[in-house]
């Protein structure tokens, strides 16, 4: 039986957060993502921001997942809301309720902070159809594609 705990990461835990997010990015990009140093540097910057929350899932002392939440504001959302920018669970812990625990924790945080919704961008389809299905099963609804423009 897996006993999972979820807690907010401390700013000093940027290397831990960065390593978990790096694993996610490697998986999404077939290991063509940013260097570990670049990701840890970004995690350090993120954890210093007041509107960014990193959650860590642990099995005992072992970190097994991360969720990054970013506070946003939009008129269409009726005010403040949160975007899930990263959600990663180590492969051997998937389908064991860890991601659902993350979502429940995020929802509690959202209610406490007065956020009106949680939003997430699902990865490319159909390759990541299981990810989309997970969010749909957990109360999210599709609202259209997300676009981006990279700035140098």
Tell me the helix content. Answer: 25-40%
* Strands, total number: 5
Looking at the structure, what is the overall shape? globular
- How many helices? 4
N-to-C order of helices and strands: EHHEEEHEH
Q: CA-to-CA gap between the ends?
A: 47 Å
- Here the CATH topology equals Aminopeptidase
Q: What's the main sheet like?
A: 5 strands, mixed
The CATH class designation is: Alpha Beta
Low-pLDDT stretches are none
Any guess at the CATH architecture?
3-Layer(aba) Sandwich
- Domain count: the total is 1
Strand order of the largest sheet: 1-2-3-4-5
CATH superfamily: Gcn5-related N-acetyltransferase (GNAT)
Structural class: alpha+beta
Report mean pLDDT, rounded to a whole number.
Answer: 94
Rounded to the nearest angstrom, the radius of gyration is 15 Å
Domain N-acetyltransferase: 4-152
Pfam families: Acetyltransf_1 (PF00583)
InterPro entries: Acyl_CoA_acyltransferase, Bact_Acetyltransf, GNAT_dom
Organism: Ruegeria spongiae
Please give the structural blueprint.
Elements lengths: L3 E5 L5 H15 L7 H12 L4 E8 L2 E13 L4 E11 L8 H16 L4 E3 L8 H9 L15
Parallel strand pairs: 4-5
Antiparallel strand pairs: 1-2, 2-3, 3-4
Q: In words, what does this structure look like?
A:
With 152 residues, the protein is α+β, with helices and mostly antiparallel strands. The protein has one domain (9-137): 3-Layer(aba) Sandwich (Aminopeptidase). The protein is 34% helix and 26% strand. It has four helices and five strands. The chain has helices at residues 14-28, 36-47, 98-113, 129-137; strands at residues 4-8, 52-59, 62-74, 79-89, 118-120.
